[in-house]
Amino acid sequence: MVRRFFNIPLWQRVALGFGLGIIAGLIVGPTSEVWFKPIGDIYLALIRMVVIPLVFFTIAASVARLSEVGNVASLGLRTLFWFVVTSVLAVLVGLAFAHLINPGLGLSNLPLGEVREREIPTPIEVLINIVPNNPVAAMAETRVLQVLFFAALVGAALSVLGERTAALRNLVEEGSALIFRITRWVIQLTPFGVFGLIAWVVGSYGFAALLPLGRFVVAIYVACLFHILVVYGGLLKLHGLKVLSFFRGAFAAQQTAFATSSSLATLPITLRQSVERLGVPQTYAAFAVPLGANVKMDGCGAIYPAIAAVFIAQYFGIELTLTQYVLIGLTAVLGSLGTAGVPGTSIVMLTLVLSTVNLPLEGIAYIIAIDRVIDMMRTATNVTGQMLVPVLVAKEERILDQDIYDGRVAWLPGDPAALEDTGAVREPATRA
User: Which of 44, 168, 370, 431 sits in a 20 to 30 Å window from 259, CA-based?
Assistant: First the structure.
């Protein structure tokens, strides 16, 4: 029975855990935190355990071999280009749906939530903080951007030194294969982690807590769904790619992101799905996906601050000018890159946007109580974009494995490494 369960496609097992979690949360109610949250916490601890080794080994190995996949400069520039373009589109979507739904009109006397003051670093401070004083300390403190920077330097040095460091390069690649194997084992527990986290959220919040800010929640969810299905889908169509194939491959990561509300917690499964279900070469995916998990925030850094800014302006009866709308867009797009790696990105981004357009910061206190509920959809949007961009770039650079993307070929269970790394065998796909 256990073997039959694990032979079911991951996204279906996650969907089962998701559905059972909703039912359990509704039945148990507020005590879900006692019964179910520990299950989710253990899963998140396991995921956090593998994130730093995964980032270090995959980035170092991929940078050392990136030139074998394609033009390094072209890959990097195209990746950043699509990061920015999709963020701009996300801001426009957020502003459009904010005015279609008008979430802040007709509201008064909303309860205030507790907002912890956060220090917003300057762009110079962000750049300085990317460079680790101590790489080991950066790993211990889970400073992913610093680990990514150090791993990229290691990979670049291995590439330049060539045969002189062949043994060390093999060691890094073997470390990458090892951590991928451990990651796969952890990923198999995703349905249980999703069950615990969803049961806790549903049981703790319920539906009554959402009623006062119902239109705000609806605006976030509808805008994010529109961005995922219509904007992302349109970009896939423009690149000659099957939309259904993308979402079939991305679904397991989207489910996990929705349950965990963390791009970094979803990173292992995002990377796995990008390679094994969407056909992005592992060498490029290992560079682009971790980078995207830190700087690609269409949900938290673009749609959410755009809608929240309009909501707060409407609630306080402030008429926004064209200049303020432009500033909201610029701040959201550039701010998501400038606050990369800063904890609590969504609140930091919203603070940054409100400060830029002179809207009252106390407005944050009115929406902080439901932050977890909307964070689920924001994170699912973030992670979808983090998979979309590598697919688009790989297609443009002609390095996308179209057979894997279209589902004509599937990876055998238990083979997370790329073909060129381990000689893994592939067979005709029998399931999505």
Answer: 431
Average pLDDT score over residue span 348-360: 83
DSSP code of 109? -
And the tokens for 111?
A: 């309860």
**Who's near 32: CB < 8 A, 6+ residues apart?**
24, 25, 199, 200, 202, 203, 204
**Count of CB atoms situated within 10 Å of the CB of 392:** 25
Higher pLDDT, 364 or 236: 236
CB neighbour burial string for 396-430, b if at least 16 within 10 angstroms, e if fewer? bbebbbbebbbbeebbeeebbbbeebeeeebeeee
* Confidence bin at 427 (pLDDT 50/70/90): very low
Question: For residues 126 and 261, what is the distance between their CA atoms, to the nearest angstrom?
Answer: 23
| 397: its two tokens | 């650079």
Cα–Cα distance between 175 and 182 in angstroms, integer?
A: 11
> Residue 257 in contact with residue 266, Cβ under 8 Å?
yes
Alpha-helical runs (H) found in 110-213 = 123-130, 135-140, 144-161, 166-187, 190-205
Q: In Å, what is the CA distance from 115 to each residue of 69, 298, 348, 393, 412? A: 46, 23, 11, 39, 48
- 50-74 pLDDT tens trace: 888 888 888 888 888 776 666 777 8
Residue 348, phi-psi category: left (phi > 0), alpha (psi -120 to 50), beta (remainder): alpha
> Quick one: which of 293, 413, 250 has its CA closest to 51?
293
